[in-house]
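Lab notebook, design round three. We kept the backbone fixed and only want residue identities now. Task for the bench partner: fill in a sequence for the structure below.
Input structure tokens:
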């Protein structure tokens, strides 16, 4: 049964894939999804997953389990509680849990996610020593996005985010993963972009600026580029004509010379594998709107080779975010005549405390894999590799 949010479900799928690879003679079943903890045949885990090249790997490390909610202890001495290493960091070794020794029935591994709880148990693991395995670098770099101040959105706005996640989360997560972006970040971005009415199909607030742009977004699978999404949006003059007639419309006298040029470009691009869409369709079909919006955002991030400048380009136009504009200027709201100078701040304020602590990872078409940490520095200046 699938319940809860998509992030939890996707993580469980990756753990399932990992277990199937490690234990091919067993059937792996996901029996319930909710929260951030996981049970594997009644053993409790807190876990992370991560792409490493073309594989999903999982690291399980024996630890003392304490939290501000209390101390976790084990009733059964044979039970072992594990946790994964720091958020997003997963190494390449085989876990030291012998799942084959677990009491299976019909060669089955069951995965169940459970809400975090304080366990009322007997054997204290407080003095258990932690044996740390050496971490292997899996990112091209770890960059810090520094804000001078970053609040949390009020309850009303956070409810708006939850509505975005509930109604559009599946579509956003699909295209985010496809194009190498982070779904939590995009849910926050589209919550900032969209109107309060979820029936409005123009979630990404697409404008005519995308018309005539040769949008190319890398497609990722297991952390590797495996293809491209190539999209061309026709100008509004073509909204009343079917795409099927495109090849015969290149010299239609009703169109201006500039419009004819864009339509003739579309005819050529269609023969070269581009998906051609009418502008009105990108604004009236929610799924198509999100597909084009995420591809366009990916295109801008890779064009700028920078996450902050790419997001700012989505809001302000890439011609305004030139080489003279730095990420720091954007984060400080220093872009002149911007409709929303605090656009980045408004997006990141939709991220929960947990999402901020974990950060997020962006895959670039040039092979870079950059993990971003979020820091708030009030009246403090720090040197180092930061944005």
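Proposed sequence:
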């Amino acid at each position: 049964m699938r319940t809860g949010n998509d992030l939890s479900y996707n993580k469980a799928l990756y753990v399932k894939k990992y277990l199937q690879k490690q234990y091919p003679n067993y059937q792996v079943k996901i029996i319930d999804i909710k929260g951030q903890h996981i049970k594997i045949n009644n053993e409790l885990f807190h876990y992370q997953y991560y792409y490493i090249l073309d594989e999903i790997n999982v690291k399980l490390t024996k630890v003392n389990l304490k939290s501000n909610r209390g101390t976790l202890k084990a009733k059964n001495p044979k039970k072992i509680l594990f946790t994964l290493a720091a958020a997003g960091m997963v190494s390449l070794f085989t876990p030291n849990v012998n799942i084959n020794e677990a009491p299976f029935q019909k060669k089955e591994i069951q995965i169940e996610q459970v809400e975090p709880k304080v366990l009322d148990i007997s054997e204290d693991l407080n003095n258990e020593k932690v044996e740390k395995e050496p971490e292997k670098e899996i990112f091209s770099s770890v960059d810090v996005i520094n804000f001078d101040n970053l609040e949390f959105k009020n309850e009303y706005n956070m409810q708006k985010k939850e509505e975005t996640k509930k109604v559009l989360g599946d579509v956003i997560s699909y295209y985010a993963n496809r194009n190498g972006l982070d779904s939590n970040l995009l849910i926050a971005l589209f919550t900032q972009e969209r109107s309060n009415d979820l029936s409005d199909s123009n979630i990404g607030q697409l404008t005519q600026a995308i018309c005539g742009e040769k949008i190319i977004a890398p497609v990722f699978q297991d952390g590797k580029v495996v293809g491209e999404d190539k999209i061309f949006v026709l100008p509004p003059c073509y909204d009343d004509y079917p795409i099927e007639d495109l090849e015969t419309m290149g010299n239609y006298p009703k169109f201006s010379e500039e419009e004819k040029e864009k339509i003739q470009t579309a005819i050529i691009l269609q023969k070269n594998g581009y998906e051609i869409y009418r502008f009105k369709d990108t604004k009236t079909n929610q799924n198509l709107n999100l597909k084009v919006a995420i591809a366009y955002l990916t295109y801008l991030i890779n064009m700028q080779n920078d996450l902050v400048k790419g997001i700012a380009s989505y809001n302000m136009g890439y011609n305004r975010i030139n080489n003279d504009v730095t990420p720091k200027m954007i984060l400080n709201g220093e872009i002149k005549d911007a409709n929303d100078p605090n656009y980045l701040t408004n997006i990141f304020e939709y991220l929960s405390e947990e999402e901020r602590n974990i950060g997020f990872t962006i895959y670039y078409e040039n092979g870079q894999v950059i993990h971003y940490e979020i820091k708030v520095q009030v009246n403090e200046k720090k040197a180092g590799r930061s944005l």
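Keep this in mind before ordering anything: The two ends are 42 Å apart (CA to CA).
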